[in-house]
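Reviewer 2 asked us to include a model.

Predict the structure of this chain.
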Amino acid sequence: MKKRIIGLVTLLTAAGASLFALTQGKLTADNPAAVTETPTATVSAEYKPCAYMWAYQSLPEISEELQAALRAVLPEAEARASAYGEDCVAADGSSTFGAMETDFYVNIPVQDLTDNERLGNLVEQVLSVVDGFPRPRVPGGTDGFVEFTFRNGDQQRILRVPIPRGMELRQQGLRGAELIQALETP
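Predicted model (C-alpha cells):
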C-alpha cells in the first residue's frame, strides 16, 4: 500500500511539474520535459502497532567499562549503567526498546555518612569518571543521572545527581561539603 502511495505521489509530482512548464511556455517538441528519477522509500519491515511501556535495559559492556574506570580512582566502589526508555510492545508479545537516557549507579563504602566534605569529594571523583561516558557513547537522547549509595554497614545515604546539574556545580567551583549541600538543596 505504501509503495503505491509513494509511486502515485511521484507520478503526480512529475505531472504537476510538466503542467507548470507547459503553462509557462517552456515545453515544446524541441524542448521536452526532462525525466528525473525520484528516490522512493523502501519499507523494510511491516509496521506493527504497539503499546509503549516504561522500561530499563542493562548495559553490560558500558557497566564493565565504567567499573574499570572507576576502580582506577576508587578501588572499593562498585558501579553499573542502565538505559531508561520505552519498550514498544506489539500484540504478538515482541518488543523493541528505545533508550531515552543512560543512568549510572555507584555504591561506595564510607566510614562516616555525615562527613559531607568526604562525600562531596567522592561525588566529584565519580562524576569526573562519568564525564568519560557522554552521548552518543551511551544510548539515549538526554543526559541521565548518577545515583550514589554511600554505605556504612547496614546504613546508607542515597544521593541522586542529574548529570547536567553535577557538571554545572563543578564548573562553578563547588567542592566537598559545598557540592553536597548544593546537590541536596532543591
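The longest strand covers residues 95-109. The chain has two domains: 1-47, 51-184. We have added this to the supplementary material.
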